[in-house]
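We modelled the chain as a single entity of 211 amino acids. Its sequence is:
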Amino acid sequence: MPHDHADHPHALLPPDPALRVKALETILTRKGLIDPAALDEIIDTYQNKIGPQNGARVVAKAWTDPNFRQALLQDADPVLAELGYYGRQGEHMVVVENTAMLHNMVVCTLCSCYPWPLLGIPPGWYKSDAYRARVVREPRGVLADFGVSLPVESAVRVWDSTAEVRYMVLPMRPEGTEDMDEAALAALVSRDAMIGTALVAAPKHSPGADA
């Protein structure tokens, strides 16, 4: 058959996804198509230096500054750009707010569009066919798989990210955080909460409480 070429690069790749990525990286490196050091730097930047920390800072500021929150929900791009959060995969941002009566979730049904400058590298499950197909059909079931149970009276809305628009969830501020500053609040916010597959948990000990 025309596609049965044993020496094709893909024929050399193992079945395990992680091993396939490593093998493909090795092949491309040998061909001089990529620089491993540059690739490691890109991954480190998005995973550790950018990561979800940027998004968490935005959430914390929105929780503590009503004017910032209103501007963020109304037109996110200029607000985020002023903070330095923009660029590749960070264009055309829309921030949607969770409330007691509405819970938002984000998916990209066509591929895996994702706001890298705010949330870092997308998790594997976000890119999986299972999540992309199921979350639009039974979002509450997906939330249950993540350990999230919502009141029956609340609504769930799923937002489909594309190359033209990317979404981030502004989660609800938990109780017991009234005296916390932005840095402490940001530490509570997880990547999954900004995708909508988690809630922000209240701190175990409120400020000033006995240990």
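As a brief sanity check on the tokenised model: The chain has eleven helices and four strands. Residues 1-14, 206-211 have pLDDT under 50 and may be disordered.
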